Amino acid sequence: MSELKFQCGKCGQRLSATIDEIGLAANCPTCGATLIIPARTTVLQASVGSPPVSVAEPTELHPVSPKLAAAIAATKAFGLTYRDPDWVDEKGEEHTVKAIDGFFTELYRLTDLLHSMEGTGEITRLPDADELQAVRVLLFEAVLHDKWSGNEAELKWFILQGAPGIRPLGEPPDTA
């Protein structure tokens, strides 16, 4: 397995991770900063005879709180890709954590709504795993990027966009 070498953005400690760990949260063993393992790096030659070291680009590697690291790890467990929203610098980490927590709250509503829609015949079946993941991605992006109004009609739209195969026969796709 390939190993990625990078430096802590806070103290400069040289660190390493596997390619499979890109995007995961880790703690620097020297200063304790919680970091996101970088995907993009710049290779620097430290000195003659020294192995090259990859220094993470500032937009990729920045210390994050343990609370945000846990929230990001939870989204990754759902197979979702976390990217800092446009507003992360102005609204801060706490807002990001609240947005991610809000997403997980909405997943309960999503499950209840899917079963209700199946019971009333609005959909012919529950979405399969891939369809459900597509719905989750749409919802996650909307919640994380402050584009989620929180109403049931919008949630139904995400369901039918992410899983168009569950519509009743003869119902045309929504083009809105």
Helices and strands in order:
Blueprint: E1 3-7, E2 14-18, E3 25-27, E4 34-36, E5 41-45, E6 52-56, H1 66-77, H2 88-91, H3 93-120, H4 129-144, H5 152-162
Antiparallel strand pairs: 1-2, 3-4, 5-6
Helix pairs in contact: 1-3, 3-4, 4-5
What's the short version?
This protein is α+β, with helices and mostly antiparallel strands and 176 residues long. The protein has helices at residues 66-77, 88-91, 93-120, 129-144, 152-162; strands at 3-7, 14-18, 25-27, 34-36, 41-45, 52-56.
Notes on the protein architecture:
A hairpin with a 6-residue loop joins strand 1 and strand 2 (14-18). 40% of the residues lie in helices and 15% in strands. The chain is elongated, with a radius of gyration of 20 Å. The strands form three sheets. Strands 1-2 form a two-stranded antiparallel ribbon. Strands 3-4 form a two-stranded antiparallel sheet. The chain folds into two domains: 3-63, no CATH class; 68-166, no CATH class. It is α+β, with helices and mostly antiparallel strands and 176 residues long. The relative contact order is 0.10.
